[in-house]
Amino acid sequence: MICLASAASAQEVPVDREAVEACFETAQSERVALPSCVGDAAARCQERPGGDTTLGISECLMAETGVWAALMQEAYDQKLDTLRETDQSLPEALRQSQEAWAAYRDAACGLQYQIWLQGSIRVIIAGNCHLRKTAARAHELSGLGELD
What we know:
- The chain has one domain (13-142).
- It is built from 6 helices and no strands.
- It has helices at 7-12, 17-30, 40-45, 54-86, 90-115, 121-142.
- Helix 2 (17-30) crosses helix 4 (54-86) and helix 4 (54-86) packs parallel to helix 6 (121-142).
- The termini are far apart.
């Protein structure tokens, strides 16, 4: 398991939720898998006093990831409701897909953490991995079932 800053401290770290939501909308309108604005809110957070330390950077990454996770959950819930109306077997398939995705994210980001185990940057690299994968999944879920 990856040890990142506690959720309680990440909740206290200021990130601009509206900026993250605007980034999410950019991904929707531009139909890109991962818009370049992912990580911008965390970068602005790191400009606060102490934000440029390993702990500060990690907290900022976690705070932005938390916003993306909420957007991902909203997209998941909306897609679940839509799929229930289409075919009763699809919600279970979506649930299984989400579980498999979470296992993949944890394994992939855990690998990044392990690769850098000997350095303090491991927390930042793993945090950035979680951020990018969560943002990409939020976008993927929101467009699930649509033709590109």
